């Protein structure tokens, strides 16, 4: 008798300021292509990535949230039931890194898992093909920033050159699955349903890279 393959569906947010390359990262990851001419996302867009993970199927529902949405009231709706997030900044524009903490605070204030912990979040230093900035040259400082702000890790990425996109996604999926397993083991009712307005919690640093 053939064993039924277990499937997981995880909602993943992709957030960050306007023009940091969120749509390009998703297109590269899902469709393996790149265009320099994507239009700015209005509201939210969606994509689906199917992975084979330890003999199981993982479906990632990627929510591409417009960069200007942090200033609106819709992020609470968009964040609902997400299990993980990529927070993206553009290494050539320091202001987009300064906005990272605001995006992370918005995420933590509006979304947490049913056990009260924050969802797994990976920081992406995007457009590294255009030159490394002073900040990402100092891996120790980046690791410290991630630990202080509750990121599980960070990666220099380039959608154009396909640098570290798959690696960053694998890191996030690993932490999402670990979070889900923690909730299941705790045997809390509705363990896999994230809730809004629960306390935030720092994440582990298993995926940190320098």
TrEMBL record:
This is Ras-related protein Rab. It is a lipid-anchor. It is found in: Endomembrane system; Membrane. Belongs to the small GTPase superfamily. Rab family. One of its GO terms (molecular function) is GTP binding. One of its GO terms (cellular component) is late endosome. The keyword GTP-binding applies. The lineage of its organism: Eukaryota, Metazoa, Chordata, Craniata, Vertebrata. NCBIfam families: small_GTP (TIGR00231). The small GTPases Rab are key regulators in vesicle trafficking. Keywords: GTP-binding, Lipoprotein, Membrane, Nucleotide-binding, Prenylation. It comes from Scleropages formosus (Asian bonytongue). GO terms for biological process: endosome to lysosome transport; phagosome-lysosome fusion. SUPFAM superfamilies: P-loop containing nucleoside triphosphate hydrolases (SSF52540).
């Amino acid at each position: 008798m053939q064993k039924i393959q277990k499937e997981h569906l995880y909602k993943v947010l992709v957030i960050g300021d306007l023009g940091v390359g969120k749509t390009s990262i998703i297109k590269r990851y899902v469709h393996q292509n790149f265009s320099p001419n994507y239009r700015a996302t209005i509201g939210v867009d969606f994509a689906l990535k199917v992975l084979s993970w330890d003999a199981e199927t993982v479906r990632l529902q990627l929510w591409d949230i417009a960069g200007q949405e942090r200033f609106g009231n819709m992020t609470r709706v968009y964040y609902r039931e997400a299990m993980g997030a990529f927070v993206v900044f553009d290494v050539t524009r320091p202001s987009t890194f300064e906005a990272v903490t605001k995006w992370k605070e918005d995420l933590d204030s509006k979304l947490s898992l049913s056990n009260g912990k924050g969802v797994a979040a990976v920081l992406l230093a995007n457009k590294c093909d255009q030159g490394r900035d002073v900040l990402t040259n100092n891996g120790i400082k980046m690791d410290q920033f991630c630990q202080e702000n509750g990121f599980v890790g960070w990666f220099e990425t380039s959608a154009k050159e396909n640098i570290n996109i798959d690696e960053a996604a694998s890191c996030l999926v690993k932490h999402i699955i670990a979070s889900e397993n923690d909730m299941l083991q705790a045997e809390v009712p509705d363990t896999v349903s994230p809730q809004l307005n629960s306390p935030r919690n720092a994440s582990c640093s298993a995926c940190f890279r320098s």
